[in-house]
Amino acid sequence: MSPARPEGLPAPADGALPTWVGDAASAGRFGVYLHVPFCTVRCGYCDFNTYTATELGGGASQVAFADTASLEIALAARTMREAGYPERSVSTVFFGGGTPTTLPATDLARLLGDVRTTWGLDADAEVTTEANPDSVSPEYLRVLAAAGFTRVSFGMQSAVPHVLATLERTHDPERIGDVVGWAHDAGLQVSLDLIYGTPGESLDDWRTSVDAAVAAGPDHVSAYALVVEAGTRMAGQVRRGELALPDEDDQATKYELADDLLTAAGFEWYEVSNWARRTPLDGPGTPATACRHNLAYWRGDDWWGIGPGAHSYLSGPMHDPRDDVFDTPDTPDTPDTPDAVASAAGLRWWNVKHPRRYAAALEQGHSPAAGREVLTDADAALERVMLGVRLREGLPIADLGPTARRNVAGNVAAGLLEGRAAVTGSAVLTRRGRLLADAVVRDLTDD
């Protein structure tokens, strides 16, 4: 991502946006992310911005969440309009968390209705919610489908009881086939999320999980290597020697096994950690069952994040905006010097993390934004490489700097980039390159 600004620039209390954010808006699509910060149980490996119901009350409670999030949707529409952002309907909506399905299905339907009323939805809009397998019923999924949801992403993680226990997941692995069937019966596409590299997970355990995921019949599978984040319960267990993490070779072997099994079952990788089932109706390129919302992130489209801790991004005009980048109400004066902002390729901001602070700001008529950063052309170019090279479609070599373009040949020779794709002008990772993607990115961004 862009160079770190730990606290960012101040965000104006009313959420006003600089006037340049809409200048390039018609170039891409617009998505909405809604962060629902509630979980029934907080898993030991999780460092997401989540809370159990007993931790919160008042305006931050699960009962009040839909009312609070509706206030931010209205604020978002108003500030975009005042900044001159052109009217665009929403192409993708994603409810993440936390576990969005801890809320009643009618609350999720209501929030989707607010998005539809506020911006409009594309006729083929993709609307996804994350869910735990033990948080839905057939009726719940039918309500979502009737409201306009098109996908559900279940946190399967593993099919092996002792692995789920280490991850502190509470669902019965035998339930996966049921929930996938219920979702398909309701007319929803299904994604299953898996985690590999859990302490104590053998290669046979991992094979069992991937085989079970394939047997359940999803449209899409994600497989992520476990990362033990500082401050989590699992990090404490590792530090005390209670759990031992697998080495990088173990994780690489498990990734390759997943790729083999998923490919044999008719799935195609379209991003390093994501596989989509190709259907007879698909043309060339990315399968239709790929997650279009996540593709929007990787391709640099605009989105507004609703909810505690949610991030947002709006593209900029790729010009020097020093005349108006800081001319928003309640923003402290910033020296208008050549060093201020060389050029703006976009604006990113993030909400306060705690649900109580988030709710209090909106109830007072203020923006919940905690800070923001202006992306320069150089920042945006770096992000295009970091995200774009992870995609099966690859990255246009012509978009790289001179040194990076010269490094392509070396990466082809090392077996990290596909030679045939490079000849036709694209940097596309080989499977070995997917395992060493960070190293490839360094070679393609060192200019």
Automatic annotation (TrEMBL):
It holds the Pfam family Radical_SAM. GO terms for biological process: porphyrin-containing compound biosynthetic process. Signal peptide: none annotated. The keyword Cytoplasm applies. InterPro entries: Aldolase_TIM (IPR013785), Coproporphyrinogen-III_oxidase (IPR034505), Elp3/MiaA/NifB-like_rSAM (IPR006638), HemW-like (IPR004559), rSAM (IPR007197), rSAM_sf (IPR058240). SUPFAM superfamilies: Radical SAM enzymes (SSF102114). One of its GO terms (cellular component) is cytoplasm. Its main location: cytoplasm. Keywords: 4Fe-4S, Chaperone, Cytoplasm, Heme, Iron, Iron-sulfur, Metal-binding, S-adenosyl-L-methionine. It comes from the Bacteria. It is found in: Cytoplasm. Residues 24-268 form the Radical SAM core domain. Gene3D superfamilies: Aldolase class I (3.20.20.70). One of its GO terms (molecular function) is metal ion binding. PANTHER family: COPROPORPHYRINIGEN III OXIDASE, RADICAL S-ADENOSYL METHIONINE DOMAIN-CONTAINING PROTEIN 1, MITOCHONDRIAL. Belongs to the anaerobic coproporphyrinogen-III oxidase family. HemW subfamily. Probably acts as a heme chaperone, transferring heme to an unknown acceptor. Binds one molecule of heme per monomer, possibly covalently. Binds 1 [4Fe-4S] cluster. The cluster is coordinated with 3 cysteines and an exchangeable S-adenosyl-L-methionine. This is Heme chaperone HemW. It comes from Flavimobilis marinus.
